[in-house]
Amino acid sequence: MKSDQKFVSAIFDELFTKNLEQYKESLSKPLNNDNDPYAKTRNALATLSDDDRANVFAFFNVIIADSASVVLGTLDGVHFPDGIDGDFVVTFDGEDIQGDLLDIFIEKAQEENVYG
User: Fold this and answer.
1) Is residue 100 part of a domain?
2) Which residues is 96 bridged to in the sheet?
3) How many CA atoms does the CB half-sphere of 9 hold within 13 Å?
4) Could you tell me which residues come within 8 angstroms of residue 88 by beta carbon, excluding any fewer than 6 positions away?
5) In this structure, which long-range contacts are made by residues 6-11, counting pairs with CB atoms below 8 Å and at least 24 apart in sequence?
6) Are 76 and 101 contacting, i.e. CB atoms less than 8 angstroms apart?
7) E strand or H helix at 38, and its extent?
8) What pLDDT does 80 receive?
């Protein structure tokens, strides 16, 4: 596996396997009266049907993918957030990996049906 693919795969797995599962687990805990963002969201989700709750969790995939795309596209030099006018040099184990990070990520997201 090429270094850019290895990098994107590691980021993808962290976001969609570890982080997303942690969100789902935390938001599926029993209801309580805490005031933190997780408790508020958990309580709101509890008012939804199982199908609607599944749709919300599925939309988390889109949010995560869009957020990662902004970062990877910026590093690749194909997305330009306001105030970021310079070029980046991204290396992994001494190898230049930028240029295709976003494309690799989107391809992987499509293969994993992230966009539903």
Assistant:
1) yes
2) 91
3) 6
4) 74, 75, 77, 98
5) 6/92, 7/92, 7/97, 7/101, 8/72, 8/101, 8/104, 8/105, 8/108, 9/108, 11/68, 11/72, 11/105
6) yes
7) helix 37-45
8) 93
Structure tokens at 7: 């990098």
Total of domains in the chain: 1
In this prediction the pTM is 0.89
Residue 34 pLDDT more than 90? yes
- Residues of the domain holding 96: 3-111
d(CA 62, CA 67) in angstroms, rounded, equals: 8
Tens digit of pLDDT for each residue in 40-81? Answer: 999 999 999 999 999 999 999 999 999 999 999 999 999 999
Tens digit of each residue's pLDDT (9 = 90 or more) over 70-84: 999 999 999 999 999
Whether 76 is covered by a domain: the verdict is: yes
In a domain, 116, yes or no: no
Residue 58 lies in a domain: yes
pLDDT at 13 over 90: yes
